[in-house]
Known about the structure:
Layout: E1 2-6, H1 10-22, H2 27-32, E2 34-38, H3 44-51, E3 61-66, H4 68-71, H5 91-97, H6 99-104, E4 110-116, H7 126-131, E5 137-140, H8 146-159, H9 166-176, H10 180-194, H11 201-207, H12 209-224, H13 228-240, H14 245-265, H15 271-278, H16 286-295, H17 298-316, H18 322-335
Parallel strand pairs: 1-4, 1-5, 2-3, 3-4
Helix pairs in contact: 8-9, 9-11, 12-13, 12-14, 12-16, 13-18, 14-16, 14-17, 17-18
Amino acid sequence: MFYIISGDDSYRCQKALNEIKAGLGSQDMVSVNTTILDGRKLTTRGLSDICSVVPFMTPSRLVIVEGLLKRFQSGEKPLRSNGGGVDEGGQALKEWQNMADYIKGMPQTTVLVLFEADLDPKASNPLFKALSPAADKVLQLSEIKGRELTAWIKDYAVESGAKISAAAVSLLADYVGGDLWSLTGELNKLMTYCEGREISDSDVREITSFAREESIFVLVDAVLEGRVKEAQHMLHRMLKYGTAPQQILSMIERQLSITLRVKELSQGTPQQEIKQRLGLHPRYPLDKTLRQARTFTIPRLRRAFHSLLDTDVAIKTGKYEDDLALDLLVIELCGR
């Protein structure tokens, strides 16, 4: 059997791989008869040798190859092969494309999986095109959005024995997006917190870590516009729901640091490139930071950093209680 599992939804890719493993029998024996290969440096001979090995005390041998498809995706730099040279003139690609013939005659005891959980499904990939017809099953799993995402959230909750309101589903989708790893984590926290009752949108706002990150934007927005009461309300709300004072201080500092860097890069630099340069998570709401960057001046940002440092020192030396120090910081930042 030959499978290709690829896409940019690593959660569903991993789930698909786990389902293949589950279908091969005893997981202890599957583990013994599983080989994971680094496709970035793998040779066709190396793969065929592994695939020809007879399984031990079980009907099947599982061979998982990671990184092979990405190696030949357009825009990827060629990596050194096992021989130390660099793939040149398309020779390595041609050899791999010819592997389709070997795969068709591969031992029936071998289950081969090309696994790529971070592959751009829209990019050109000649190896994927060549090997797909030889596959028993091809799964291209892209990040889900819109109605498909909200349906997934509702289904996950129902399958876990929980109830969740439509408003809570919508808010979670808005906060977290299609990152299913993060969504499962947030849903599990919410189910524990609600103890059997229906999960509401207010529960999401109180518990979800992404909601707290959103709160930082609201807090910084209020500070930028000098809305002291709203900024203090958001600060007290975050403290009430368990965000540590030092964490709030760190989050404000991080957001202002990103704002400064974004301000420096925003002239003529595409948003995607800004995210890559700053190492920001794909879910990071860069548009909000761009708006904040337009409001902040460089001198004001510098004064804000000095205030953050003074507050940090005041907390660590015991000059002020944590909550009071943060209150004074918010008032000072709103007044600058």
